[in-house]
Automatic annotation (TrEMBL):
This is glutamine synthetase. One of its GO terms (biological process) is glutamine biosynthetic process. The keyword ATP-binding applies. InterPro entries: Gln_synt_N_sf, Gln_synth/guanido_kin_cat_dom, Gln_synth_cat_dom, Glutamine_Synthetase. It is an enzyme of class 6 (ligase). The keyword Ubl conjugation does not apply. Gene3D superfamilies: Glutamine synthetase, N-terminal domain, Glutamine synthetase/guanido kinase, catalytic domain. PANTHER family: GLUTAMINE SYNTHETASE, GLUTAMINE SYNTHETASE 2 CYTOPLASMIC. Keywords: ATP-binding, Cytoplasm, Ligase, Nucleotide-binding. Residues 198-449 form the GS catalytic domain. One of its GO terms (molecular function) is glutamine synthetase activity. It is found in: Cytoplasm. Its EC number is 6.3.1.2.
Length: 449
């Protein structure tokens, strides 16, 4: 049975909530949000949406928090307001901020991910008289906040407080104003990363190889499903669509379903500051793709997760489900998250030599990569990487130019120009991108995978 796992009934016999349009809409009007979205808020108050990965390692959660200052100024310029910090601390912090097109990365957390408390204590030495509590929410920075890890499959019931640590901020496309989306990672009571927090390891790898300027571009494939029966949008009831070579990048109302959401997602991501490279309709009807990147190092992971969050939010607004399952239907193309990778050296003249070296290294650690390329240690990809539908078999490693039945593809243009990037076709659509790019950096750049 290859129906997405989310289907199925509640143990007590209650089915999924809010299935029909009226329940979703609350019977208000066609577009209830429009009536409230422009209501003015008290000056300097903004809503921050904290987003994190739950205990499954593949689902996202969020909670909102009101801030009484604006870390994000209008016109997309990011600034930090840190009035409570003395000048020296502020300078140290500001010097560590990396600005990118997409987001501002908050330095204290990114630079000292494993040891937040020590970092703050170290900084406090600069002004020993005042003891700053890491969890002091009056810090004019994005606060670390707590949540109930029992409700997210991350903690036992009797000891469930976990911490959310802000990592990257984006503009919130669902709210007018300076409101934020905040990508977070998760920590237990000892400030150790939770088991599904793969960002910490990835941050460590990126820190060690950032001078190689690794870039990642991830192609995210997925299907839209009806909420009512969890079958793909537009597919015949209980059956399958006719096989056709007309769907991929196709036009015509019989060739695709869900384009409104695709267009909205594209625009929302660009507004948010997520670098979407492009989108296209995929080989199966109702299957689509968007590409994120190229993003630099670790931040590719933040961008990919936040793009998934935006898609989930939009799809639910339209009353549609998204499945990130890599093989929802046995007889149809699966969904991947092809990960395109380059370094400064690969992009430079004759960079093809560095690409070939990287592929040579990848060949030796194929199994380790397969383990990291889906959230179930390779089990999901067992259904997808079967040597058909433009995939290589899971047990085989192969590389080729302009060829799509292999593990690694060198795009034709890269082979011709002898410089550029390569594509790792193995990661599944539900991969944790932090794990995939961590594996690539460690194997190809750090020789330690
Ligand atoms: P495909 O032909 O495999 O479908 P796409 O056009 O869908 O390719 O995706 C190309 C991907 O390559 C995008 O995600 C883009 O961000 C990424 N990319 C482009 N240039 C680079 C580069 N120099 N380094 C890493 N990724 C890159
Ligand atoms: Mn509560
Ligand atoms: Mn593609
Ligand atoms: Mn594709
Ligand atoms: Mn591809």
């Amino acid at each position: 049975d290859h129906r997405p796992r989310r289907r199925g009934s509640h143990p007590h016999g209650i089915d999924d909530v809010a299935k029909d349009e009226n329940t979703i809409r609350g019977n208000l009007s066609d577009n209830p949000q429009e009536r409230f979205i422009d209501l003015p808020l008290p000056e300097n108050q903004i809503m921050a949406t904290y987003v994190w990965i739950d205990g499954t390692g593949e689902r996202l959660r969020y909670k909102d928090r009101t801030l009484d200052y604006i870390p994000l100024k209008p016109k997309g310029k990011f600034t930090l307001m840190m009035e409570n910090w003395d000048k020296k601390v502020m300078e140290t912090m500001l010097s560590k901020i990396t600005y990118t097109k997409s987001a501002m990365y908050l330095p204290p957390y990114d630079y000292y991910p494993r040891n937040l408390e020590n970092f703050f204590q170290a900084e406090c030495k600069l002004r020993p008289k005042r003891n700053i509590n890491v969890f002091d929410e009056n810090l004019k920075d994005l606060p670390i906040i707590s949540y109930d890890g029992f409700g997210t499959q991350q903690a036992i019931q009797t000891d469930s407080d976990l911490y959310l640590c802000p990592r990257a901020i984006y503009r919130n496309p669902f709210r007018n104003g300076n409101h934020l989306l905040v990508m977070c990672d998760t920590y237990d009571k000892n400030l150790d990363p939770t088991p599904t927090n793969h960002r910490v390891k990835c941050a460590d790898a990126y820190k060690k190889c950032h001078e190689d300027e690794p870039w990642f571009g991830i192609e995210q494939e997925y299907f839209f499903l009806n909420k009512s029966d969890s079958r793909p949008l537009g597919w015949p009831k209980g059956g399958f669509p006719r096989r056709s070579d007309q769907y991929y990048c196709g036009i015509g109302s019989d060739k695709f379903a869900g384009r409104d959401i695709v267009l909205a997602h594209y625009r929302c991501c660009l507004f948010a500051g997520i670098p979407v490279y492009g989108t296209n309709a995929e080989i199966g009807p109702s299957q689509w793709e968007y590409q994120v990147g190229p993003s630099v190092g670790l931040h590719a992971g933040d961008d990919v997760w936040m793009a998934r969050f935006v898609m989930e939010m939009l799809a639910s607004e339209y009353g549609v489900q998204v499945t990130w399952d890599p093989k929802p239907f046995e007889a149809w193309e699966g969904s991947g998250a092809h990960t395109n990778f380059s370094t400064k050296q690969m992009r430079a003249e004759n960079g093809i030599e560095h690409i070939e070296k990287a592929i040579y290294k990848l060949r030796n650690v194929h199994e380790k990569h397969i383990e990291a390329y889906d959230p179930h240690g390779g089990k999901d990809n067992e259904r997808r990487l079967i040597g058909t539908h433009q995939t290589e078999r899971i047990c085989t490693f192969s590389a080729g130019v302009a060829e799509r039945f292999c593990s690694i593809r060198i795009p034709r243009i890269v082979a011709e120009q002898k410089r550029g990037f390569f594509e790792d076709r193995r990661p599944a659509s539900n991969v944790d991108p932090y794990r995939a790019i961590d594996a690539l950096m460690r194997t190809c750049l750090l020789n330690e995978y």
